[in-house]
Amino acid sequence: EPEVTQTPSHQVTQMGQEVILRCVPISNHLYFYWYRQILGQKVEFLVSFYNNEISEKSEIFDDQFSVERPDGSNFTLKIRSTKLEDSAMYFCASRTGMRQPQHFGDGTRLSIL
Amino acid sequence: SQQGEEDPQALSIQEGENATMNCSYKTSINNLQWYRQNSGRGLVHLILIRSNEREKHSGRLRVTLDTSKKSSSLLITASRAADTASYFCATEPLWRAGGTSYGKLTFGQGTILTVHP
User: Fold this and answer.
1) Which of A57, A65, A97, B88 could form a disulfide with A47 if both were Cys (CB 3.0 to 4.6 A apart)?
2) Which domains, ranges and CATH numbers included, belong to chain B?
3) Distance between CA B109 and CA B6 in Å, rounded?
4) A5-112 adopts what CATH topology?
């Protein structure tokens, strides 16, 4: 069964550094998402992406965050200057259409030192 | 309470018993989805129930939705040790004509289910 894949599984970065989290959504999916889960807290929506542009973003998704779909397969989340509070598990999700469930990857655990 | 609140927060049962988890939400929804998360892993989609549906089954899973009470329940019958995980409900808001709701999911805190062999 097709899967959403995320790399790396764990990223350790110094505060202030840039980090890029990578995702390969399921190939025929059209809608793409990033969520994050701080340890012990709820999964939180960050951003949705459709038709090569951001369709919705949360208050968390400030100017330090950006997303890109540089080619037909990858979907990336960049954090320009990481803060300690960015430490979390980041999940990528995708789906075929508006009436379909979202399928999640296994996540990237981001640790900011 | 917040959108998508589950109860109980933790549930411990013996193998073979049924497990029921509840979810309440506040705003109008297009659909409600249930996910499972094994420790340290990703979210696995279980069932999507649309706002015009009242009940849905998938294998040992049964989901109900009561939009008048803004609540849903997930029943796992004949539980197994492998069902041990966290279970989350997630709501997708009602699509607004000309609006920008592209599927943002709002998750609850989750129910931690432990099934003892």
Assistant:
1) A57
2) 5-94+104-116 (2.60.40.10)
3) 6
4) Immunoglobulin-like (2.60.40)
Nearest Cα to Cα of residue B46 among B110, B115, B97: B110
Q: Largest Cα–Cα distance of chain A, in whole Å?
A: 40
Please report where in the chains the tokens 């009561």 appear, as a residue.
B66
pLDDT tens per residue across span B67-98: 999 999 999 999 999 999 999 999 998 876 55
- State residue B94's pLDDT score: 80
Q: Does position B101 have pLDDT exceeding 70, yes or no?
A: no
HSE-up (13 A, CA, CB side) for residue A100:
13
Probe site for chain A from B35, B88, B104 (most A CB atoms < 10 A) = B104
Helix then strand count (H, E) for chain B reads: 0, 11
SS3 content of chain A, % helix, strand, coil (to 5): 5, 50, 45
The Cα–Cα gap between A100 and B48 comes to 8
Query: For chain A, which ranges sit under pLDDT 50?
Result: none
Give the start-to-end residue ranges of the domains of chain A: 5-112
Mutation to test the A interface, candidates B6, B29, B105, B111, most A Cβ within 10 Å: B105
